[in-house]
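Much of our argument rests on the idea that a fold can be written as discrete symbols. Part of our work consisted of pairing the sequence of a single chain with a tokenised description of its backbone. No coordinates are needed to read the tokens, only the vocabulary itself. The record that follows shows the chain in one-letter code together with its fold in token form.
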Amino acid sequence: MEVKSCRTCKRLFNYVSGPQICPACKDELEKKFYEVKEYIRDNPRQGIKEIAEATGTTTQQLQQWVREERLEFSADSDIMLNCENCGAPIRTGRFCEKCKNNMANSMASLYEHKPEPKPEKKKNDGNHMRFQR
């Protein structure tokens, strides 16, 4: 474990993994997430800037939650993102379904190929050094 400074409140904490924020700030961020989620459910036609202003969060944090697929905008929402691979419009995540499927298929095809056979080892010809105890 490392001791790091929280990027939000600057307090020291034992860092294990994930974002460099202390447990107290992580709990506050989770509370804010559920507040934002409820706000979006009640106001599905709001834009990202309006949601950020109404909930007291940043647009960057909202975009991060959407990219992590924790938030998804409804079909009647005006908010659209672009697939990072092909640029197609998406509602959540980083990639569209087509690109996700292509990536999954290309990864699966890597595992379908059989590894090349290893060359056979030479038999012991007796010319090696031996140690006695």
